[in-house]
């Protein structure tokens, strides 16, 4: 049986409207993300995220390439937001995240954003609403949910984030978000500054992931294996262990939960600025030895819930550590 998303009870009690107003008020001197740039976004100014008062929707579609518990058979209803509060030099979606002039034309009202959510639910029949890069648009997203609920919105919301999120903002999302899909990018603040241009990534992201786990706990799926609630942590393997996989995954097991669902991703390639001469350490794909090392680490730590993405450079290399999962890889085939 599907769980009723928590935002429906919050709507009925009036709490969803209260949180919407509280979040919107913070746009006056924006502190929505950890950069706390204090931009007057309600007065036409843009923040360090290059975004103003209106949400920017770069695309909206049924996505079949997410983790199988999200994509299922009908796809995850992804809404890709323009701009980002990170500046990753290797971003594979840099046209969306780091080209604010081009993204300006994708500004929409919160009413249109609500319509997009309902389109994904009713027309495309997606399993969920997947909010991709949402951190700088939380007030606008919550307003759109407030508008969409009386029009029939009932799908779980997925918060698909870099984890560079404000604790205060995340606390306002308690009960609104059903599923957190959170990156764990680095175990080094130096690398966070160098490759994503943010300060304190390690402390911020780890505090955020703890809060996400407090809210939703371990992954819960329905009878068809579709996620209803819980935390999924993504970890992208980077060349030369720039991601600090041992430190990051070890922390996750020690400080969050051994049972937390983890998605180990091997899809890195030198996109955007990483393809040039400035970052030679990032100017290549990962090699099988690096992939195998993380696979061994996952097994050594005793992690059993999650997925291992195929090693792109090793044909038919599809180990799986999710022994209790009905899926054998990220393409979602059932065993």
Shape call: globular
Relative helix content:
25-40%
Instruction: Look at the structure and give the mean pLDDT.
Output: 91
Number of helices: 12
The fold-level CATH name of the domain at 6-221 is TIM Barrel
SS-based class = alpha/beta
Name of the top-level CATH class of the domain at 6-221: Alpha Beta
Radius of gyration: 19 Å
Tell me the β content: 5-15%
Order of helices and strands: HHEHEHHHEHEHEHHEEHEHE
**Low-confidence runs:** 313-335
Tell me the number of strands: 9
Main β-sheet: number of strands, strand sense, barrel status? 9 strands, mixed
Our measurement of the CA-to-CA distance between the termini, rounded to an integer number of angstroms, reads: 22 Å
CATH architecture of the domain at 6-221: Alpha-Beta Barrel
Walk me through what this model shows:
The chain is of the alpha/beta class. Strands 1, 2, 3, 4, 5, 6, 7, 8 and 9 form a nine-stranded mixed β-sheet that branches. Helix 11 links the parallel strand 7 and strand 8 (261-265). It has twelve helices and nine strands. The relative contact order is 0.12. The two termini are 22 Å apart. It has helices spanning 6-13, 15-25, 68-71, 94-97, 100-103, 110-123, 138-148, 167-172, 189-196, 201-216, 245-256, 288-301, and strands at residues 57-63, 76-81, 129-132, 157-161, 179-183, 220-221, 227-236, 261-265, 306-308. The model is unreliable at 313-335 (pLDDT under 50). It has a domain at 6-221: TIM Barrel (Alpha-Beta Barrel).
